[in-house]
Amino acid sequence: MAREMKSNGNSDTAIQDDRNEPLHPEESPFEENLTPLARMREEARTGGGSQKIEQQHARGKLTARERIELLLDAGSFEEFDMLKGGRGDHLTTGKRYLGDGVITGHGAIDGREIFVFSQDFTVIGGSLGEAHSEKISKVMDHAVRVGAPVVGINDSGGARIQEGVDALAAYGQIFNRNVMASGVIPQISCIMGPCAGGAVYSPAITDFIFMVEDSSHMFVTGPSVVKTVIHQDISFEELGGAGVHGGKSGVAHFVLPNDILCLREVRRLINYLPSNNLQEPPLLDLKDPIDRRDPALDYLVPANPNHPYDMKVLVHSILDGAEFFEVHGHWARNLIVGFGRLGGKTIGLIANQPSVLAGVLDNNASVKGARFVRFCDAFNIPLICLVDVPGFMPGPEQEHGGIIRHGAKLLYAFIEASVPRLTVVMRKAYGGAYIVMNSKHIGADINYAWPTAEIAVLGPRGAAEVIYRKEIESSADPTASLLEKEALYRKTFANPFLAAQRGYIDDVIFPRETRGRLIRSLQALEGKKTARLERKHGNIPL
Ligand code: HXC
After folding, report:
1. What pTM was estimated for this model as a whole?
2. φ, ψ (nearest 5 deg) of residue 222
């Protein structure tokens, strides 16, 4: 069902909360009740006080409330539990803060309802105690009941030390809900300050993690513990900054330079997603003709099979309005994953990137692809796979790092996916990597190849060396003999026509017509249904 997207327009303006207006006791017959309510609301809004708010701003961070205002459509936020008090800091100040360091409620993103919590670092460092956790649990329960996404904004010193084991139990309540909501509603985490210790595991269970450069950090044990235990000096940034998690560990899916841009990106992401697993993703007509052809694509693949090209040229060319929302853009860049639209409908795209490590599949790329495929399948988002893969990365580093386990994840995820699945092979599709990249043999619905595709067991050089080894070694000129055999192999096997003859490729298409063929195929697969045997759950090789 098509949804109308309203423009944002709230990012530079503060929410006009009518409850913020001064009360006029003389006009009210309930003066004695209204005045304390107004006072309490004001107290809750002030959080940890003006000095703490100034400190927050001085660090380049927005406050918890400012973040909610930027995230949601102007004026749409409705708050819960503003007056809920914490258990109190009995060890030190004895003070109880209204709201207990987290702001919770619901509002809209482009007119669609979402639930939100935003930790307030100005109140006891945003630390999580019992009441704080109950507030988060409440919005998560609401979100699951009504089938709406949850966005959690994390800025916290972790379990509130003064609440002892109750604070740990409180985290358990949230972890439980994260897991039960997984695959039911989209869960998005923004890390906008510290997120340390066991507290990292709530965001880690959610679907997407956004981090902000310089101001956000995630680690299981901080620099001081690292120093004590393994005697290594390391800064917060080097241990768990946005750069590290966006580029090295893969923990963060998105890294943005500041809070404002981060929250804008969350809004963009939400617009690609359905509100829950029973809904289709929202439709958005970008007025891009279905049959738009791009003749430049006929020249995208270089004549020399060893030369790289940028797969993103093809990605942008085929998608509606050339708009691509890349996920994990800084990690495992040899595989591209992200969202776009085809004929107005959200699709999840998985593509090898020949310009990074020749597009080879390695451990990180396999895990990245597998997780993305599973998200799309859980939320009814069709998969489009663009293939140019020379194989799995060889060598002890990858083998010992678990390429067998990790590659199996990608294989498992594709086979398990019951959403419409399309594949186009641009160039190389060799061996196991060909099969894993959404081939017909593992259940893809419609598979196309460009005339430049090379679908075979091995690349021409490797294959010639194996099957003609004796002939090459005994020839007068082994180099010339290898080249000759390579050319023979290429002509015989490294093309799409053998696969097309066998029906493993449904059609060999001109590159320029790729967009139209994909959209027509998606239309044909609209009513796809699959039956599965009953089971508790499979055992994906985690
Ligand atoms: C209680 C805390 C707190 C906490 C911070 N504060 N963390 N209070 N419990 N966990 C308070 C501080 O006392 C301070 O109070 C205020 O918040 C701001 O903290 P600062 O230290 O002044 O801020 P900053 O210098 O920015 O340092 C932030 C910080 C640091 C890096 C987060 O506070 C810190 O290291 N906190 C402890 C982190 C930690 O070890 N947490 C437990 C992790 S284990 P005042 O009154 O001075 O303003 C965990 C287990 C989860 O979370 C379990 C899940 C299974």
Report:
1. 0.92
2. -80, 175
